Amino acid sequence: MKHVVAALIIEGSKILVCQRTRHQTMPLKWEFPGGKIEPGEQPRDALRRELEEELGIGAEIGDEAARIQHKYPSGAAVELRFYVVRDYHGSIENRIFRDVRWVERADLPSYDFLEADRELVQDLAAGKIV
After folding, report:
1. pLDDT tens figures, 37-89
2. Distance CA 104, CA 130 (A)
3. Which of 14, 19, 117, 119 satisfies CB 3.0 to 4.6 Å to 102 for a cystine?
């Protein structure tokens, strides 16, 4: 099972979402920024590193908001840990994505998210979490 961390970067009523490029696996799907936990790395440290690499920000990682295990039809399994990020320093730069957008919670379900993120997207849009 692949272990992944992702950030729910929140500003007011909006959440930052990112679109994969055409060259990545599951191309053009929307996701929350983050990535794989490296061997020996703590989840919050992994997320801090990923956000610096992908968006150029130094993030203060908050509470874990959700943990999801998902198995794709291909057989690949992933455990995702989502953390709230309300504070960061630096300006958000799109370093690796096709697109980066601030989206109102209610509008999240209209984006074509990764299959593993869809239940969380519904919960965020409904105001059930964070």
Report:
1. 999 999 999 999 999 999 999 999 999 999 999 998 889 899 999 999 999 99
2. 13
3. 14
Torsion angle, alpha carbons of 68, 52, 105, 79, to 10: -10
Distance (Å) of CA 36 to CA 19, 20, 27, 54, 124: 17, 15, 17, 12, 22
